[in-house]
Inverse folding.
């Protein structure tokens, strides 16, 4: 048995290498700079852990997040490997102790945030060691065009040169060709070996749904989580406030999720993460601060309640599902509000020229003297308008042309970020294979026209429905035609007869057999939850996206009656709601319908007011006991 395989089996208790792991490990052992792009769940951490144990000296690992460092340190400590991490959260005494141990060569691995690399005490302690190689985890953070750019990553190449460190290993789960070129250039790599696994993960089913209103999206979320039957999953939101809100809704619906966002204390975040990883609480609602570096194999679904700002983020976050190789679902939900949120983030985190000049003036005038994390300060450091040494900031001389160039660069960068946001929104285009869109984004050819593993490609299976009366169309085509018809009729009333005309056209009469067949199809679609195809629990189902979520679609399919013990369609255009008798006087039309529907779902008046953005005192709620309208709140 060869030495690497023996070390893998003995130290890590793994039977063999995953694809490309061995080649990546051998590359760095042979002293070659190495870029490794492995999809989420591809085993990136082993690619630096095993050669770090195999080679003489200490391995330095650069990592962007404290939680990520802590997780890797914990795993190595369980293997009895001497390891530490350095970050700003450590007490002064603990930091001094660890630096002394580094100077004595007591560690095999040292994890550090990139901000630490420029500090004199750290470099002095590290210089007393033989450094086997430098590993840069989440290396996409080094690129302006990466989805998580961090200015301090730009200092890594200089650090490696100054310390005489070679080789360098760069690892990431997502990188376009442009980002890869940035990584190689910034780290000053020399003729690096380049390994890239496929971005295709066949066990993941990609589903993307677009909604006209937030209320419809909320109801879709409820339907989705319900159909997951308690499986392990994650719901991602873009803001802390949204995490709290969606977590509250899911709590009322009976799912008892944990929540996780950057506004919580470190202890609360650690407790939430532990409960989710242990399986005590299978559902987590979180911002994108959650999940990086967490290796939980049995995640069956990831739902993006809000879209992220780019496809790299989406791919990485969605890819936390199905790491055990079993079927899992990556579901994205979108309304126009998502675009607004992401555009706000772009403008807030990438300051314009006024913000840059203001921050520069404050440093020059002494109002700001120590480094503080802010988009403007980081941008000025990146442009070399400021200098940072031992946590002290000084302003460099900047000419008018320099400011003009900075303005042009800033605007070009914002424009590029908005283009990437547009690419993410384009993912929701109807009838386009989701998998092919993802692979195209990463410049990978799928080689087929469809994947049979996304909502746009899945064939809709309708058991016990005979479509012999529809010789010129298949079930999938008809269901898509119905969907398009409903989409075009958004907010308007229409009947089963109009649906028939929409499907068959006005050119010829529709036979009774055709009517019966389409009626059966429509009834089955409603039983399956209407129209949108979704694969869950190993069989095809459907998700109601437009007709039932709100009462805005006042068409006959909304009105169901009991027939033979099952829910059946009522095509009578004069049908009335049987759920409750509604007094329509106090409020007009759509607003009342939305309040009524939210109240049925168990939302409190305060939540309804917050969701609909109307004063709480104006809400009239339904008294469920008496079926009458309640008083004003």
């Amino acid at each position: 048995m060869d030495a690497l395989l023996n070390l893998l089996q003995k130290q890590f208790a793994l039977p063999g290498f995953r694809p490309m792991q061995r080649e990546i490990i051998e590359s760095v052992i042979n002293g070659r700079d190495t870029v490794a792009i492995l999809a989420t769940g591809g085993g990136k951490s082993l690619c630096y852990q095993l050669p770090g144990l195999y080679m003489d000296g200490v391995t330095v690992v650069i990592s962007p997040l404290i939680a990520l460092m802590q997780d890797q340190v914990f795993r190595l400590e369980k293997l009895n490997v001497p390891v530490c991490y350095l970050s700003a959260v450590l007490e002064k005494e603990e930091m001094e102790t660890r630096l002394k141990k580094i100077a004595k060569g007591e560690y095999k691995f040292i994890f550090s945030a990139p901000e630490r690399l420029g500090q004199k005490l750290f470099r002095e302690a590290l210089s007393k060691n033989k450094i086997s190689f430098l590993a840069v985890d989440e290396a996409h953070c080094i690129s302006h065009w990466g989805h998580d750019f961090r200015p301090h990553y730009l200092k890594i190449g200089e650090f490696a040169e100054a310390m005489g460190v070679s080789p360098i290993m760069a690892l990431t789960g997502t990188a376009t060709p442009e980002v890869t070129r940035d990584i190689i250039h910034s780290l000053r790599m020399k003729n690096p070996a380049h390994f890239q696994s496929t971005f295709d993960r066949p066990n993941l089913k990609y589903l993307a749904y677009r909604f006209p209103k937030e209320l419809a999206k909320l109801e879709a979320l409820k339907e989705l989580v319900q159909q997951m039957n308690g499986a392990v999953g994650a719901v991602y939101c873009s803001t802390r406030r949204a995490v709290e809100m969606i977590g509250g809704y899911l709590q009322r619906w009976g799912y008892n999720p944990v929540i996780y966002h950057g506004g919580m204390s470190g202890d609360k975040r650690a407790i939430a993460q532990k409960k989710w990883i242990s399986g005590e609480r299978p559902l987590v609602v979180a911002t994108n601060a959650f999940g990086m570096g967490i290796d939980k194999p049995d995640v069956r679904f990831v739902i993006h309640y809000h879209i992220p700002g780019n496809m790299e983020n989406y791919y990485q976050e969605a890819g936390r599902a199905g790491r055990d190789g079993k079927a899992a679902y990556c579901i994205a939900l979108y309304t126009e509000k998502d675009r607004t949120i992401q555009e706000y983030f772009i403008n807030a985190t990438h300051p314009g020229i006024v913000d840059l000049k203001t921050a520069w003036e404050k440093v020059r005038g002494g109002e700001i003297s120590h480094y503080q994390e802010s988009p403007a300060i980081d941008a000025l450091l990146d442009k070399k308008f400021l200098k940072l040494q031992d946590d002290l900031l000084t302003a460099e001389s900047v000419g008018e042309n320099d400011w003009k160039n900075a303005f042009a660069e800033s605007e070009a960068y914002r424009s590029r970020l908005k283009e990437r946001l547009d690419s993410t929104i384009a993912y929701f285009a109807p009838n386009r294979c989701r998998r092919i869109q993802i692979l195209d984004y990463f410049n990978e050819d799928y080689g087929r026209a469809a994947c049979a593993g996304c909502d746009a490609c899945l064939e809709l299976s309708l058991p016990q429905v005979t479509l012999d009366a529809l010789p010129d169309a298949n079930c999938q085509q008809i269901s898509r035609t119905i969907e398009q018809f409903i989409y075009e009729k958004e907010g308007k009333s229409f009947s089963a007869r109009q649906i028939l005309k929409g499907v068959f056209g006005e050119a010829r009469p529709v036979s009774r057999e055709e009517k019966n067949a389409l009626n059966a199809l429509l009834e089955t679609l409603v039983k399956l939850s209407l129209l949108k195809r979704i694969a869950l629990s190993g069989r095809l189902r459907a998700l109601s996206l437009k007709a039932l979520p709100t009462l805005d679609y006042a068409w006959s399919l909304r009105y169901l009656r009991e027939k033979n013990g099952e829910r059946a369609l009522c095509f009578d255009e004069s049908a009335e709601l049987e759920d409750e008798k509604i007094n329509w006087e106090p409020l007009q039309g759509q607003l009342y319908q939305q309040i009524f529907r939210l109240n049925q779902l168990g939302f409190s008046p305060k939540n309804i007011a917050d969701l609909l953005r109307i004063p709480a005192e104006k809400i009239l709620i339904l008294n469920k006991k008496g079926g009458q309208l309640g008083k004003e709140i």
